[in-house]
Design a protein that fits this description.
This protein is an alpha+beta fold. The chain has 2 domains: 136 residues, Nucleic acid-binding proteins (OB fold (Dihydrolipoamide Acetyltransferase, E2P)), CATH 2.40.50; 257 residues, Bira Bifunctional Protein, Domain 2 (BirA Bifunctional Protein, domain 2). The chain is built from 16 helices and 20 strands. The chain has an 8-stranded mixed β-sheet with strand order 6-10-11-20-19-18-15-14, with helices on both faces. A 5-stranded mixed barrel has the order 1-2-3-5-4. A 3-stranded antiparallel β-sheet has the order 7-9-8, with no helix packed on it. A hairpin with a 4-residue loop joins β8 and β9. α8 crosses α10 and α8 crosses α16.
Amino acid sequence: MAKPNNGQEPDLNQILKNRREKLKNLQEAGKDPFQITKYNMTHHSKEIKDNYDALEGKEVSVAGRIMLKRVMGKASFCHIRDKQGDIQAYVARDNVGEDSYKDFKKYDIGDIVGIRGEVFKTKTGEISVHAVEVTLLSKSLQVLPEKFHGLTDTDLRYRQRYVDLIMNEEVRDTFIKRSQIIKEIRNFLDERDFMEVETPMLVSNAGGAAARPFETHYNALDEDVKLRISLELYLKRLIVGGLERVYEIGRVFRNEGVDTRHNPEFTLMELYQAYTDYYGMMELTESMFRHLAKKVCGDTKITYKGTEIDLGKPFGRLTMNDAIKKYAGIDFEEIKTDEEARALAKEKGIEIEPHHKRGDIINLFFDEYCEEKLIQPVFIMDHPIEISPLTKKKPDDPTKVERFELYINGWEMCNAYSELNDPIDQRERFAAQDANAEAGDEEAQHTDEDFLNALEVGMPPTGGIGYGIDRLVMLLTDSEAIRDVIAFPTLKSLDK
């Protein structure tokens, strides 16, 4: 909890001691709040305010945390906070009884109470509840942050998200919107006849993405296993099985660094649709982003940190090569060999690894020169084959694949393919990945024999796509960092 904010505040240890003493006195008097198992709450704060005309003079029961209390002799006011916001209660001795009023005066900020009474307006016009009964439901033994400044320490906010949610209304709104976003994604995909499924988190081969996995040991089987880094290969197996349209929203785990857009544990959605290609995924993505903006934000024009982003206009389309040509003035169509690409990288100060080939270097140039300039929605298309081991080649240019990434606000929002369904080609791509792994690439994929067997059984032409849900929530809630949209983000232990 936050400490008192200046030297004039009472001693924190004494405050905590007093709260425990109050609890002990309640328990000795047979009024232990922790013995109460339920409370019949009939309304929330916003419901009462939104429906005042219908509820005026009617009895309601509300419950929440005391955030403000003003004791004035025989009558007092308090503000209680529930999931919808705050509402004022008027507590008078003559209405609740002398003993109950004495107890109420001893309640602390942070205590959770239930209040039964009539809805009315005060002389100042504030919608309130005139209490006839006050019940202490839980005693807070800690101290909330000072009310005017709230909880502002960023690290403490993430470590004590429960306090952050109590003190900061915008934080509660962010997580409410996150839930709405996921609900609307499901609604959108349900309308398109997609089936939600679940696939394993513990896997022997963590494939489907270029990332380093977390590793653990399965004692019962005496086998080393990995936490999944992607949902892809199991979802494709379901396409092979004939389910045709599947998706999963789930946690994936990548053993990588933490920054404003990356958390080692994050939420990924992947979907696969038989009998379509990456153009079909473009249409689905554009339609889904508009749907989410309208439902969650109320408009297809959104604002992120002061920049207006228009999700209503047709999304741009630009090949990766053309993007580099546009923003870096370099045409990789004229750079034919790995040696030429390496020489250019050295000339431009782009750091490369010994195993990097022309396609890898194209991607590094894109990252360096293009990403941050892609503010309005644009599909970056036709990636090099070297960085796309699970994607179909372009029929007219086998050095590229039918792949796109959607960029908004300089961020990669999703990654989509015309999925590779040729088992012979896929085996060759896996072999190239195995070679990269042997050369020291810790993010390389490995041959997955069961997946190859599934492809040999036969997978129809398929379009697939993966969305980072946390980054999408950041965009639609105007949140600055991924930690702001993950309830309990990864943090270094305090005892390290």
